[in-house]
Structures
1.
Amino acid sequence: MNKNSFNFLDRIDSLNKNQTKLFDLIVIGGGITGAGILLDASSRGLNTLLLEKKDFASGTSGRSTKLIHGGLRYLKELEFSLVRKVGKERAIVFKNAPHLIVPQKLLLPIYKNGTFKKWQLSIALSIYDWLAGVKKNERKKIFNSKKTISKETTLNKEGLIGAGFYSEYRTDDARLTLEIIKTAINYNAEPYNYLEVKSIKKLNDIFYVEAYDSVNKLSFKFKSKQLVNATGPWTDDIRKTNNTISKEKICLSKGVHLVMKHENLPIKNPVYFDAPDKRMCFAIPRNKCTYVGTTDTLFEEIEKTEPTANIKDITYILDAINNCFDVPKLKLNNVISSWTGLRPLILEEGKKTSEISRKDELIIAQNNMISIAGGKLTGYRLMAKKVVDLIVKNLNQSEKCFTSEIKISGSENINQTNVNEVKTSFKEKLSEIEIQSNDLDYLFHNYGSQLTKIIALLKSNRYKSIVQAEAHFCIMEENLYYPLDFFLRRTSKLYYSPEKIEEEIILVSPIFSKLLNLNSAEIKLLINQLLAYKKRLTNFTDD
Ligand SMILES: Cc1cc2nc3c(=O)[nH]c(=O)nc-3n(C[C@H](O)[C@H](O)[C@H](O)COP(=O)(O)OP(=O)(O)OC[C@H]3O[C@@H](n4cnc5c(N)ncnc54)[C@H](O)[C@@H]3O)c2cc1C
């Protein structure tokens, strides 16, 4: 694969070439776990191939709460070492991907009869800051009710005692996954989306993996010395494909998020609040919207690719909002989009999904395939290190992990302290070409330094609108084939500005047709697929 052309143009040639190689490692699954393993292994010099059956981050890794967080709720469950580990990881991800990670102060309101008493929250947040190694000037504050209301006027005042105010980080989970994969390409990694693993065999110490390319409708066979199963909710399915399953290891918990216009829930900071049943939910302002979640219910359906929200899930979240916020009552028709994800949890008999630990676990099959499941988006780097340390040992090698020092794609010349400066320089460049971007924040946090390339496309006068230049960039450099993936995972526009999609499709369709050589019937099919998906984001089932 050409390092500068991560796209579909030479896909079949590069797949054919890769069929002839013996890889050190094949990773199955292109979510955050697989992406982290790909970067760690390839940066240690391992010849690594990644196979993802749909789009990168199309599983759980594009459907999370999108927080890089230490997990305050784990403190409640006394999981100190988990809090310490993921807390420290926050700082590393922020250092290496400062455009993708946005520091945020969260407000946690304290109510009479709520989850926390004021003194409890004060102690918990102090421990939380200490475990995560939070800098002195960013440590928690505890407010009285008056100060709390001045910070967040939308809160329900009845029974309000005060609030905790503490640091977390927001991200875009799908873009973080993709940028990690793009970073791995610099170390000669070979990642492919739309290649589904169909069979696994092991002969004479070599794994033979057959995968189906759903875009070109072709099968390919690859070989490797080591094999990792990083398929999250599908972990047990791949263990079955590998014929080595003794008992199921994973149970799935469904989590729904709803998106509404910011004017309907005009919060200034993210709020972490009690639902009526005392579970805690997040409300997070983003891109002129606010999203709120999540639910946590056992998921037992067979089809895991597109889990959907039902009316019960929606009612739960709307009730939680209407209970905590003093805004005109939110109803179903205020929901402009939604997403539903499945947490792959390590099965613990007799426990409710909300009680199961979010720890990760390695499962090593008799033929030595390594499955990794559980964990958090935030802890992806440590999970990857654990897996790759084992692989390096299996290969009798000794290269050490250095991913804590690897800057993630899009962060060139950006660091934690110059974010505002870089944003201003992009604003000036956009106004030079007479583009007044109201979306500078979105563009910067989506593409980071790669915004230079998008501006260059606009400057060359080839495109008149930013969305066209974005589509060109994503097709040529982010292995984009489907318009749906552009609007969903490359730009999140389906979530935060669904009302503009019809207009923007007209602008970008000719670019998909031209760059990917699609005829009018093919492009029509892809657009219909996108529009049908858009409908589903506000169409909720009854059961
Ligand atoms: C509602 C919700 C909120 C969350 N919020 C947070 C949060 O705010 N912060 C945080 O740190 N964590 C959060 N998490 C947890 C986090 O999102 C997950 O731990 C993480 O995304 C799991 O990633 P993964 O790569 O293991 O799985 P996935 O992202 O699901 O990736 C597995 C991939 O394997 C692919 N695959 C499956 N079968 C095959 C096959 N046969 N061949 C090829 N590929 C295959 C799938 O298509 C999929 O893309 C949340 C989870 C949920 C559900």
2.
Amino acid sequence: MPLPLKLHAASPISLQTQIFEQVRSMILEGRLRPGEALPSTRTLSEQFGIARNTTALAYDRLAAEGYIETRRSVGTFISMQIPEGVLYTATHRPASPARSTKRSAVKSSDPPARSQALVNPNRKRLVADFWVGRPDPDSFPRKIWAQLIHRRLLGSGSALTEYRDPSGLLELREAIAERVRPTRNIVTSADEIIIVGGCQDGLNLVSRMMLAAGSTAVVETPCYQGAAFLFENFGAKIVPVPVDERGLICGRLPDVRNAIAYVTPSHQYPLGVTLSLERRLELLAWAAETDSYILEDDYDSDFRFHGAPLAALKGLDLMGRVIYLGTFSKSLGAGLRLGYVIFPTELLERARHMKTLMNNGQPWLEQATLADFMESGGYERHVRRIRKLYYSRRNALLAALDKHFGGGEIIGAEAGMHLAWRLPHDLPPASEIEKLAIEAGVGVYTLATGAAVNFETSADSDRYLVLGFSSLTEREISKGIARLAEVLSVKASGQRRAAQALAR
Ligand SMILES: Cc1ncc(COP(=O)(O)O)c(C=O)c1O
């Protein structure tokens, strides 16, 4: 059967993306059913008179995201893994904003708030610190940034002396809306975007809009401290839901109403796994059924090392259930304090008022400079360059782990700025290694340290080390892992000697 696609060669959106998006919509809307056959890439390219490579790449992307599957010498079919019950046709319901309840004032007897760790407190003594999520300090585009900021400053007129739209600079919001379509599969416009001071500020904005003492905040476990501790601070009831190799276990989502669920679907923090398509759909269906909202933190999605970037969960959300958080802390630097939130339409007015109440908007000069950097194409070139750099550093880390340990399992290395290493059986638990490593000047982290928090500790969860690689040179990475191996073999030989002495 020919596919009823409408392809436009003159569109700025590539033919590959058009095919991907249209086939995906047909699947999600139930117009193509699980198990149904698709035309071959050759037939499709002949139908539209386009290159075979274009259709093949679109199919590759659909397969990578779990929409279709190819059976050798048989053909290509819509994936049987997509549960029909959670497709939009089955669950389409209008959204309504979450209810909020009253919150009492803080008493002096209340326990102090917890906040996320931003750096390793021992870092001055470290030879190599595998702290997670730090950009390479030498890669910030200083020269071009200086030129752009200087030009904007001289032409600023009243921009630095007057209040501006608290939602953020229109040019920057437009540049973001344009970028998230091809890179994250999110169709949005400047109106739906609010510029914030990084993800953390976005989380605060959403928490102020949605949380009150006693509301439910679902988090992944393990989870990013900055989110979990913030929700805790709002008096929310934290419901941790465990993560396995396919991401959040949606079967364990609570039976509640008006909750928020904070997730990191592209590269789970800190485990690094990707949320499967089946579970993405389940999570969206849960949000619709329970009148809840999903907070998607897409903190490091710019760094996917092979193939097209995976689409964001927000790109699948036809029911207005996903609030998307993006940040420039990883692609440029955390010191800029710039990020953005993309809201579903029904939350926009509330979000704009809350942003005004919180801080009247972000600094104009940095927003204007970033908008110019994005519009000039400089940002995209910068991201491509550092992606390559991080790829080499990731490879150096994989090579060093293989050389010195040659065992265990690597998780989440296809993307991002860190990976998780499931330890080989002959190594001690991760928490013990972390302590030994620090003594030797190497910073490594577990699922419950660094900036992570683990709500369900078990012997198994102490078998993972979390290693960031983006801010270390290849030399530092090799030295750090060699030092770690040295420490662990010293410990192992000490244990052997003790065991031999006991046996005598
Ligand atoms: C998962 C995750 N989300 C958000 C952030 C914070 O980002 P921002 O600097 O934009 O507040 C981090 C920082 O490491 C992170 O790891």
